[in-house]
Write a structure and sequence with these properties.
This protein is of the alpha/beta class. It contains 19 helices and 14 strands. α5 links the parallel β2 and β3. α3 packs across α4, α8 runs antiparallel to α9 and α9 runs antiparallel to α10. The chain starts with 5 loop residues before the first helix and ends with a helix.
């Protein structure tokens, strides 16, 4: 039997208290949030399978909490054998004492806890490796479990795509890839309206299914009728969702901005984030992983991009404004911020095949709360234009999640549309996927939808040969000219 240093043994035992003391176990899990995000239901439904699930998402979005809630479910609702559950966070410092982290952890687990070789197992085990990018050997180890169809359900999580997939070729195609970002609007709405939690879940599901059906059948009537139905049947919905949207535009979807900060003002919360979290995320998930040589420049770049969320910015302007010497460096730094889930980009949509557009991109903060906390802003500080930019940011980010429901493709970028001339001009967002027969243009309004907006959308629908288009606004609901869906922004966000 191998020998392990005392810090390693103490660390892994502290990560897995359920191996030793059920009473302590209950105390630890009593501190977990009872509220579960929408993703939770999906992972619970998958537990019976033999599979390795890769869970990629930004730091502090709730990946570790989700994993521990799944473990709580296994222990207290499924009565799983505690010794059949292994959890480790490779970010813990004591794992740095071993070069082959996952290999040594699994060997210790087999010899000390299971007292059986994993390859001889008949009973299901559950393996949860948090922040797995600290050990690049994970794909080679876990691909063997998949190839042999061992009775294992595993979640491998990470906060950086380049780091987590550094050696992923050895397991390419064998793992289920999933992305978990900050809370969706519907989850924030559920959290703020706990008395309607289950109802909001049902409404969101019905709206999403109706919208996806309208995409498939090219008939927007299905979706508009469902929107009208849920609003008329739930008189509390509109005011509750409008209030939730204001909260979401301020705090976004970082769980800690809602739970764990009771009795603290937004000023206190955002100041804490600026001084204790912001630089930590940049250092660990951007500077260190992407080998950034000018950390002060990438910090300045992130602040500049989130300040200008939803705006078109040319590379030349960014390079000149921030004092970079090379546009190539700007591109590399922007890619690093995107891969760490801090920003998203939109390129100009091009009809047909060919090279990507070289026109100026639009940049979006990956979360409204990220932007406001980094800049230290409250909604009262924002101009009408800035509020419009935040609404567009929320709609754009949710549109990428909606597309995931269509083609299961994880993406950090999307499209906008622009055409010279007074009629078409710019459409904020274009929903485009190989699974959609035609692109769907989407315009985001911080106000009412007028005749001029409808005229421009008709021109875009004609130009793109789209089945229909969508305009989100303050409070209108209807179908204009048979091809223009007009809905409040909160309805669209709830549909994603």
């Amino acid at each position: 039997m191998a020998t392990y240093n005392s810090a390693f043994v103490k660390g892994i035992m502290s990560d897995n208290p359920w191996w030793a003391d059920d009473a302590l176990n209950k105390i630890i899990f009593s501190e977990l949030p009872t509220f579960t995000r929408s993703d939770y239901d999906y992972y619970i439904s998958e537990l019976y399978k033999n599979k390795v699930c890769v869970l990629l998402g930004p730091r502090r979005c709730g990946k570790s909490t989700l994993i521990k809630q799944i473990i709580r479910h296994l222990l207290f609702e499924k009565n799983a054998n505690p010794k059949r559950i292994l959890y480790v966070s490779l970010e813990r410092a004591f794992y740095d004492l071993t070069d082959k982290k996952i290999r040594d952890i699994l060997e210790f687990y087999q010899e000390t806890i299971l007292k059986k070789n994993i390859y001889e197992l008949k009973e299901k085990i559950y393996l949860f490796i948090d922040e797995a990018h600290y050990d690049s050997s994970w794909p080679r180890i876990f691909k063997q479990f998949v190839e042999l169809n061992l009775p294992i359900y595993a979640i491998i999580s990470g906060s950086s795509a380049p780091a987590l997939y550094k050696d992923e070729e050895s397991g390419a195609g064998r793992f289920s890839r999933n992305q978990m970002v900050t809370l969706k609007f519907r989850d924030v709405a559920r959290y703020l309206n706990r008395e309607h939690d289950d109802k909001i879940k049902i409404i969101s599901k019905e709206l999403r299914e109706a919208l996806l059906e309208s995409f498939q059948t090219k008939n927007p009537t299905t979706y508009v009728k469902k929107v009208q139905e849920v609003v008329s049947l739930n008189p509390w919905l509109e005011n509750s969702m409008k209030a939730a949207l204001q909260e979401y535009l301020l705090k976004g979807g970082y769980p800690e901005f809602y739970s764990g900060v009771k009795n603290k003002s937004w000023t206190e919360i955002s100041r804490y984030y600026q001084t204790n979290v912001f630089d930590l995320i940049l250092q660990k998930d951007v500077v260190a992983i992407s080998n950034i040589r000018q950390p002060e420049k990438i910090r300045k770049l992130l602040v500049f991009l989130v300040q200008n969320t939803s705006r078109q910015l040319g590379r030349e302007k960014i390079t000149r404004h921030l004092g970079f010497k090379s546009q190539i460096t700007v591109d590399q730094y922007i890619d690093a911020l995107s891969e760490a889930f801090l920003i998203r980009t939109a390129s100009r949509f091009k009809k047909g095949k060919g090279y990507p557009s070289t026109k100026a991109k639009k940049y979006y903060s990956a979360d409204p709360g990220l932007r406001n906390s980094v800049l230290g802003l409250d909604l009262a500080d924002l101009s009408t234009e800035e509020k419009g930019g935040l609404i567009e940011t929320a709609v754009f980010n949710h549109s990428l999640r909606l597309l995931f429901n269509i083609d299961r493709e994880i993406r950090q970028s999307g499209f906008y549309y622009e055409k010279s001339g007074e009629v078409v001009s710019e459409r904020d967002i274009v929903l485009a996927s190989s699974k959609l027969d035609s692109p769907i243009p989407l315009e985001v309004k911080n106000g009412s939808c007028g005749l001029e907006d409808e005229k421009k959308m008709r021109a875009t629908i004609s130009d793109l040969k789209s089945s229909f288009g969508i305009i989100t606004c303050n409070d209108q609901i209807g179908l204009k000219n048979e091809k223009i869906v007009v809905i409040p922004s909160w309805v669209f966000l709830l549909s994603c």
